[in-house]
Fold this sequence. Notes:
Multidrug efflux transporter AcrB transmembrane fold; alpha+beta; single chain; Alpha-Beta Plaits
Amino acid sequence: MTVPGVADVLNMGGSLRQYRITMDPQSLAAYGLSLAEFAEAVKSGNENASGGFVSTGPTEYNMRAIGRFDSVEDIRDTVIGVKGGVPMTVGNVAEAAEGTALRRGIATRNGQGTVVAVVIKQQNADTVQVVQGIEHALKELGPTLPPGVKIVPYYDQTHLIDHALRSVTRATLVGAVLVVLVLLAFLGQLRSTLVVAVSLPLSVIIAGGLMRLCGVGLNTMSLGGLAIAVGIMVDASIIMVENIHHRLHARASEPRLRVAYEAAREMGRPVAFATLIIIAVFLPLFLMGGVEGLMFRPLAVTVAAAMLVSLLLSLTLVPVLAARLLQPNGDGPEGEVRFLRLIKRRYRVVLEYALTHRRGTALVALALLVPAGFGLLNVGRDFMPHLEEGAWVVSTVTPPETSLEEGNRISEQVDVILRANPNVQETVRRNGRSERAVGCVLPVNSGEIIVTLKPRSQLSRPLPRASSPRPARRSSVHLAPVSPSRSLCR
């Protein structure tokens, strides 16, 4: 609980230590004591108190009264009253013994009883930083544990976060490399490619500042927005560089800065309108509410910020770099490279054929449209993408009147079936709730089994896709991937 970002820790499994006092009503009545007096005496007898201080010459001593119970004998010896000059203790009217609290939760690991601790982080806390703090605290806690007791993490959300960030980062880098290769093929000049490519990292860096001002950090959705925008961020710069390149080739005798300035002014308005239209496509995402808005708003902010920054760079930095670095090349009428001239030559033939055979072209387009429409009907409509993080959570729900023992028996059967699967590496099962749980927790008729799968290289067969929950009349089992947004509340 001392780790920054931790809201609560729910412990389940094992037995919670408890002292029980079983009162004898007849003995209590014989001594002329009420139940309220008995309870107040026990409560006040289990307290420490300050005794002030005592000064003896040059020395001062702090005083305190130690009254907390340390054993069952302390409870039995607690004085609850005096009758006829004789003190009456708890042991005279009640029996005190050490026991366990009523169990409201059961936990197992691979079928063996264990104690499970579920750490809940605070709202808006960084998951990675919280987990790092927990790992540091567990290292310090390790040497103080009793012999034979060890703490073994069984599910860590940072694994999914790291995997998702690596995947999106890899996609972004691959996209950037492909963009540079396409630029090099079509512009035909390394300097032109570098002028355009330099706007990519600058757009991302400056867009990160705008995202911070909007309260958006780096997460899966915002990085996904960068992956989407990496291909369109350079559109404005490409148009600007190509127009400046053509003008420098056609007006080689004129001052370069003047030619670049006029070429940039010529394309400034079309480039600005085209970029703003792309940004407008993402505006509906800003208006989405609920969970959808929380998820997709970072993506919209990222794309809009990246596009705005790329537009600004295409109107300012790119013309300056183009005027300083570009050199006219190519032997075409406008400095076109051989690869582009080859494509235009082939395209001219196809265009002429399409214009002279308009009816056949329309029929071909219609023939392609019909199967595409049928294919669209079979496209999945899942709101959440399919995640394969290597872990499942199996939720078991029985009727509300089901006892903890019966719910544990049913979920134990599910646990046995899961552990029999050769692809399963470990299962951790929780039934019911923590004895000290407060707020929104699972009832005793609910259970969860965290299923950790073997590494992908060791899987014996492909994994089935996660299914959606289905209503059941008596009991049901829900299988779904574990995700960072998953909560203990239902």
